[in-house]
Sequence to fold (234 residues):
Amino acid sequence: MTRRTTEETRDLLLRVGLRALHERGVHVAVTHVRLADVATAAGLTTGAAYRCWPNQETFHRDLAVAAVQWRDEASIARTLANIATLVDQDAPLAEVLRVGAMANVYDYPSDEPFFIAIVLRSCASADGQLAEAARERLESATTSFASLYEVLLHHYRRRMRAPLTVHHLTVALAALSEGFALQTMAGAPHLAVQRTDTGPGVGSDWTVMGCAVESIVDRFTEPILEPAVLADAR
Fold:
């Protein structure tokens, strides 16, 4: 049997600790995840665990940092899966926004890790290490989604309205998404409306989040006019 290094043991224990935190849910603070229990779940001795952390407090701090940094690599994959077919079929942009927002809000109830990360980020300012982890996680997610939005803008022949940038758009949509997530955590239902102002190929069943996303995209971006259109405008 290969002997693990202290760093490998530490990484294993953090992964198992995260799993325990995610299984217990957002209502349970990291302090309820005991290092001894994590060691047992990982198939290690308590002694091995305490060679990585001298006490529960330091373990809980690292677990909180890991929870903030945790990134569900499937999150952007789910977003792509929900809209990929529509984009391939050249569905109207409004339909892509409608379906994407609807899938997003209805994913919230089952996304405990996302909720846990938001809760911990909300109190990150109390701890420098946690605050740094929160900033790094936010920057990483922003970069990934900005790349997706750039592709969509190119596909739908739109560009950012100066002086706004794709980064601004990404930050605004992230704040909107997390705001609706916080409402879900408070038990608020997702509001929906039936719209009669949608064009061909666009459904009438919209979440309020979808309406807000459409408004932001419409205000932050503008169509790229073809040369013939520009000539007619003159």
